[in-house]
Every structure is written in C-alpha cells, then in structure tokens.
Hints:
Keywords: Membrane, Transmembrane, Transmembrane helix
Strand content: under 5%
Structural class: mainly alpha
Shape: rod-shaped
Radius of gyration: 20 Å
Largest sheet: none
Distance between the termini: 35 Å
Amino acid sequence: MQLLFLIWVIMGASSGAGTPEDCGNLSQQDCNDAESVGTAIGVGLIIALWAAADIILGITYLIYRVSRRPRP
C-alpha cells in the first residue's frame, strides 16, 4: 500500500509540470503560479490521506494484536 501512495504522490506532483493552455484572462505567469498552487494542494491532500490510512491501519493492527494476546 505504501508503494501505491508513493506512486500516486509522484504522479500527482509530475502532473502539474506542463504548460497550461486554458488560462482565460490570466497572464502566463499567474496561470503557471495557479497551476503550481493547485498541484501543491493536490499533493498535500494525497499525503494527508496517506497519513490517515496509515493511522487507521496502525490502530487496527494494534487492536488485532491485543485481542490475540493470551489472557493471564
């Protein structure tokens, strides 16, 4: 699962490396800056989801280990 999240982060970060075509009335610099901000927000959300999944799986594993422990 860690490998999948790592690939997702790399793909998300590299998806913003390009030249935006539909800038509307923005200048090229503003359009590039907006694209960079959007990419950073997207990668940040992926990392937050990764951390949440790790915490949930870690707690689940701890509960499983405690329930399997021999009782005194």
